[in-house]
Amino acid sequence: MSTHDDDKPFLITGTGSETVAPGLHILRGQGQSFVAETDAGLVVIDAGPGGGVTRGMIDSLRKISDAPVHALVYSHGHIGYNAGVPEWLAHAQQRGDPAPRVIAHRNVPRRYARYRETQALQHRMAEVQFNRSPGFFEHRLTMHAPTETFDERLVIGSGDRRIELFWAPSETDDAIALWSPAQRVLYGGPSLLDSIPNIGTPFRTLRDTVRWAETLEAMAALRPLKAVREFGPVIEGEDAVQRVLGHTARALRWLRAEVVALMNEGLNEQQVLARIRFPDELFAAPWMKPTYGDPSYIVRDIYRSENGWWDRNPTTLHPEAPEAVAEAVAAAISDKAGLVASARALAGAGQWQLALHVIDLLATAPGDAPEIVEARSLKAAWLRERAGQVQSYVSRNLYRVSAEMIEQGTQARFGIR
After folding, report:
1. 379 near 373, Cβ under 8 Å?
2. How confident is the model at residue 306 (pLDDT cuts 50, 70, 90)?
3. How much is the pLDDT for 4?
4. What is the mean pLDDT of the segment spanning 67-71?
5. At 249, is the pLDDT very low, low, confident or very high (cuts 50, 70, 90)?
6. Backbone dihedral region of 183: left (phi > 0), alpha (psi from -120 to 50 degrees) or beta?
7. I need a labelling partner for 262 at 20 to 30 A (CA). Which of 3, 81, 83, 203 fits?
């Protein structure tokens, strides 16, 4: 796997801070953290990934306020966002301040338990998704249990400096948001991005599309004057906030209704993906860009939420080992050179995806026969071509990393074919 990007930050939004309203600030780290100055002390949402990034966040905070940190709050349970908790606790101790409360939604401990159980899997998935070398995440995805949790809502502070933390299920079932009633400022956490909602990402578990829409609608009902995203610029003005939140919720509800209608016609997952068209009036808005997620990801997630694992092909009900299948298919192809030539012709016409489907008849087979070795080489090259055709950061990485692993012969470690 490539190592040339190992030292480049990912999901890091920069350094420094930005004041959104009096006493309310963005703190840049892994995503955009948030700081609220309350009469109980500072409330910091997300401690950052640790190391130099978190230390920079602490330095930036101290340029804003010298008040003690009253609470560290987890915006959601994805690991890297709060790996930096120990640095914040050490900072409080050095200052002689009381240890901050460490607050999360009540579903975070359950998520952490699952992540501990599947730690090796989590590391491998992150290596592929973010194009990092084996072992890169071994000491980076550390988890620190919250000292307290809440369910629906938690209020900190009083009067005009009061803030409310509330459950905002979206990217995760443990996501929260922050609301400043006096200033009508919303921090949306992972529910609010500057791209299409991150639903159905290839390596992740199911996310509830309609529940995410409901969260956005509940936020809109607060009538915020400003809305702070986890990634992207602040949404300024009540009308703009209503437009973004409402539009995104409508697009998610449209996806659910459209996929359900196609499923009710009897279409399988591949047929749904082939049939569905994403109308520009919903999906061409700037905040619906497929820069990380993709509308087709959401289609797959909705489909999987109502269907089992079966792809409707009876052959796949009780399959042989994939290596044995690939070997048998390759052996059955009498004109291997002709198959490679046909795949090359498709690629030469720019039909990279069809070329990949054809070349897979040989490229997934074991052994070092010349035609199979050639097929693997062609597949790797065409995966890179496909990477240049898609906008999603995740899809581009999956194509490129898979190509590198095929060339290096390490794809079996990740179950990639």
Report:
1. no
2. very high
3. 37
4. 98
5. very high
6. alpha
7. 203
Which residue would you say has higher pLDDT here, 6 or 272? 272
| Cα(46)–Cα(260) distance, integer angstroms | 36
Residues in the chain: 417
Q: Does the structure show a pLDDT above 90 at 12?
A: no
Select from 70, 66, 61, 56 the least CA-distant residue to 18: 61
What superfamily does domain 320-414 belong to in CATH? Alkyl sulfatase, dimerisation domain (1.25.40.880)
What's residue 5's pLDDT?
40
Residue 339 reports pLDDT greater than 80: yes
Is 198 in contact with 205 (CB distance < 8 Å)? no
Q: How many CB atoms lie within 10 A of CB 13?
A: 19
**Which overall architecture, per CATH, does domain 17-191 show?**
4-Layer Sandwich (3.60)
The pLDDT assigned to 139 comes to 74
User: Quick one: tokens of 183?
Assistant: 């200033």
Whole-angstrom distance, CA of residue 231 vs CA of residue 46: 13
Residue 3 has pLDDT above 80, yes or no: no
Q: Residue 332 class from Cβ within 10 Å (0-12 exposed, 13-18 middle, 19+ buried)?
A: exposed
Q: To the nearest 10°, the Cα dihedral for 345, 346, 350, 352?
A: -130
- Residue with structure tokens 């072992």? 135
Instruction: Evaluate whether 3 touches 133 at the Cβ level (below 8 Å).
Output: yes
What residues contact residue 417 under an 8 Å CB cut-off, 6+ apart?
A: 322, 326, 360, 364, 411
Cβ neighbors of 60 (< 8 A, separation 6 or more) are 15, 16, 17, 27, 28
Burial zone of 364 (CB within 10 Å; 0-12 exposed, 13-18 middle, 19+ buried): buried
CB 204: neighbour CB atoms within 10 A?
Answer: 17
Its pTM stands at 0.92
The predicted pLDDT at position 199 comes to: 96
DSSP 47-102: --SSHHHHHHHHHHHHHH--S-EEEEE-SSS-GGGGTTHHHHHHHHHHHTPPPPEE
**Domain extents for the chain?**
17-191, 320-414
